[in-house]
Amino acid sequence: MDLFGALQTSVSGLQAQAFSLGNISGNIANSQTVGYKRIDTDFADMLVEQPAKQQSAGGVAAFSQLTNSLQGGVAATGIPTNMALSGDGFFTVRTAGGTPGGTPTFSGSDLYTRRGDFSVDRSGYLVNGAGAYLTGQSLDPVSGAATGTGPIKIAGTTLPAKPTTGIAYAANLPSTPTTTSGNALLGTLPGGDPRVLSGTAATAPKVAAADSAAFLGSSIAGGELTAYSGTGSPVSLQMRWAKVANADATAGTGDTWNLYYANQTATGTTPATWQNAGTAFTFNGSGQLTAPTGTSLSIPNVTVNGTNLGAVALNLGTGGLTQYGSAGGQVTTTTLQQNGYAAGTLNSLAVTSDGKLTGTYSNGNSVALAQVGVARFNAPNSLKAVSGGNYAQTAESGEPLVGLSGTTIVGGNVEQSNTDTAGEFSKLIVTQQAYSANTRVMSTAQQMMSDLINVIR
């Protein structure tokens, strides 16, 4: 290498250190940018083809090294729709090409970002601070089924009513119930008409208002809950259990119970009427339910105070209904839940760890409204950085892999920049020294060339 080669090498050194300085300045400038990934600098030597004994140090080239796979710190913001990824992956977003009439139009291709400071805009879309719109699957609030993919929009503020179609019920019936009448068995009510079942009935018997007092005296409370009609009208569903037969070893039958619900509640001086559920419940000597078999049965045409709920499934589960001894002689209810609700308006939004955007409504229900789009790449550091903290897919990054796959989403938080300011200042000092050293090489080479010219003179 001659003096001209030394000058050229020094110029390449100046260019490489200036490139590094540009990356350092960008990292420091974005040290507070949400989701920013710092760009480091790689240096590579550039050699001229020479025999081994004549090889000399060559120039240098600088290349960017992305740190997309390095996690930044997670900080709480208190904004429920903000979200941070804990692990690999990127949020899938799209940019708006314009907003004619106030409604954004979106680009057709997805971009990817770690910037999760999303909030709801005036059109109901989730957009981050850099103007990127979050995409994913929209979900039907009633059925939970996916209704489409694309930019997530929180459409509508009302959750329609859902009728009660099932009741989850688990309880222990006392082997010897304690009733107010002192008669543990309901048997035949006054009037001589049997109001009890030993099996099932197509038309279940009913306890008339005139027999209400006798019925209440020979039965025990089985729980009460609020159920909902198709229009969301609430009704109070009261249940009572009556033991109608003791076990008969000779006949090979077990203890038998009937379940009733109040189809007309008491008002003023008018007593309630009670409807048999239509199926007898039989237990063996070990307190296990032997009939009906299965984990669920249907109570047909449930009507309370004139409000018809239709058929309601009583879901007992496996071993949900037992008959064991009880000191108090009363029903011990461990599960009593129904699946209906009244209409409600949206109060707030939140994000779950598995990426579901859920809405909490005025009726107390929380339902999933969307599934946040997340994509992973086999080579995330090969993505192409574009403005706004977004990245574009490249041939080197590979195709996006959809799904979290072990990554979790932290709602109410954002991922901070992964820039280490102290580390960048250290690199800044080294870069400055290297740049100054290259200028000294240039000045030295220039002086040597001047000396050579002076010799000729």
* Average of the residue pLDDT scores: 90
Please state the CA-atom Rg, rounded to the nearest Å. 38 Å
Give the percentage of residues in beta strands: 35-45%
Distance between the termini: 24 Å
What is the β-strand count?
32
Outline: elongated
The major beta sheet can be summarized as: 13 strands, antiparallel
Range of helix content: 10-25%
Total helical elements: 3
Structure description:
The chain has about 450 residues and is of the alpha+beta class. It contains three helices and 32 strands. β5 and β6 (about 105) form a beta hairpin. α1 (about 5-30) runs antiparallel to α3. The longest helix is centred in the last third of the chain and has 36 residues, at about 420-455. The protein starts with a helix and ends with a helix.
Quickly list its features.
3 helices; six-stranded antiparallel beta sheet; alpha+beta; 457 residues
Task: Write a brief structural summary.
This protein has 457 residues and is of the alpha+beta class. The protein is built from three helices and 32 strands.
How are the secondary structure elements laid out?
Layout: H1 3-29, E1 39-46, E2 59-66, E3 74-76, E4 83-86, E5 90-98, E6 105-106, E7 111-113, E8 119-120, E9 126-127, E10 132-139, E11 146-151, E12 158-159, E13 166-174, E14 206-207, H2 212-217, E15 220-228, E16 234-245, E17 255-264, E18 273-283, E19 289-291, E20 296-304, E21 307-315, E22 321-324, E23 332-338, E24 344-351, E25 356-361, E26 366-372, E27 374-376, E28 384-386, E29 390-392, E30 401-402, E31 408-411, E32 413-415, H3 421-456
Parallel strand pairs: 13-21, 13-22
Antiparallel strand pairs: 1-2, 3-32, 4-31, 5-6, 5-7, 5-10, 5-27, 7-29, 8-9, 10-11, 10-26, 12-24, 13-23, 14-18, 15-16, 16-17, 17-18, 18-19, 20-21, 24-25, 25-26, 27-30, 28-29
Helix pairs in contact: 1-3
